[in-house]
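User: Show me sequence and structure for the first protein, then do the same for the second.

Assistant: Starting with the first protein.
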Amino acid sequence: MKRFLIPLALGLASTPLMAGTSLLDANEYSVWNAGVAATFADYKFDDNSVDDSTVGFKLYGGYRINKWFGLEAAYHSFGDFSEAPPLPAASVDVRLDGYSGSVLLYAPINSDEVDVYAKAGYYNFDQELERNNIVTASNSPDGLLLGAGLIVNISKQFAFRAEGEWFDIDDGDLWAINLGAEYRFGRAPEAAAPVAVAAPVAVVAPPAAVAAAPVVKDSDGDGVKDDIDECPDTPAGAKVDARGCEEQLILRGVTFDFDSAKLTPDSLTILDSVATTLTRRPNFNVEVRGHTDSHGADDYNLTLSQQRAEAVRDYLIERGIPATQLTAAGFGEADPIADNGTEEGRALNRRVSLEFSTQAGQ
């Protein structure tokens, strides 16, 4: 069977196929996160009257604004720092906890697996000083914090994080190392790049042979002569089959909720137009193909692309297209049409396409 593209563009010409923007351009980094970390802290306080290390914890939440910047709020619990001089009666303990807010600056590295960042911010802690097991003073130190860290991405939702922090306290210095994990959520629906659909292409019957025609032209420049070209107005540079028709149609604007196979409302409008056109073309078989970029694990991407292809197929069946006319296949990141090393290329590679073939005997 020869593969063959029908003129779906006729049914889609009035549909807003430019809806949505590239996930990486607009929302790849616009994501919330929440995490917990074990804290290993060292505090030198009051001219070394306390110089001790403790183990505590840190709870934090943040928002990645874009590729470069993020915001973070955190609660720190450092526990008790103690000093036990030779005379027990002179024992000193300091209890320290409180809150901080920071701005994160991410390094410009081209990696899906690792992020490196520096941070600066403000803290406000509660501090209690005990001498001989009696609270003798309490205050609320505040000031500058600085830090740097490394994030290792396990998936689109989970990551490990290691960071160091320094807190400038009036009568001491506090250093902390945090080791923990975080969960990300709230990213916007994935969307294909805003690429316009091809101009409408009419399917016409092959023209009757003209005897002794001196020259047969190729008006659209696709390599198929006009006398056998069933799609005489294909766009310049388009890949065509032996009949002069595009072999594959990419459905720009068909998008899904983040990290799922649930179609967005704008996608349903586009697929309604697809179903209307397919209803008039019952002699074609259609394979719905799902594709992803290289962001994430291979097996995960393959499964997600299969689920999304099946979601499109199921919706077309609901709109009246016979199930025997439709199949679905997921290709994950295996069939890129652009460079996955760039944001623009990954946006183009996240797509749903339709592959056409004529039914036997047609």
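Switching to the second protein now.
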Amino acid sequence: VMTKGPKGVSVSDGKILWQAGVYKEKKVVDRTGAGDAFASGFVSVFASEKIKKDNYRSIFEEEKIEEAIKVGSANGTSVVEYVGAKTGILTKKQLQEKRWKNLPIKKFSLTNNKNKLY
């Protein structure tokens, strides 16, 4: 996972590279804590999954990675709209708002020579 501030994020599992932009900000007030907010949102998607003893890899499915990118990006975007690192942290209910539904994510294959776009 590599956050790139206002340029978005890149995530890879070694086979696929996901690249996402950012949600539109209402107004940037303070960038303090944006990266940490992204990280906590990203990890929360996986932390909420039940880990099976012999199948821990299943929690890292493509859909979950994309959901984690969206939740992390939403959380990071919300935080920069407030002063301080914690004020804008989103709740589960707030994540359901329409504003956080559409984040374009591009996927590229890393296992073929053509870097095929999915």
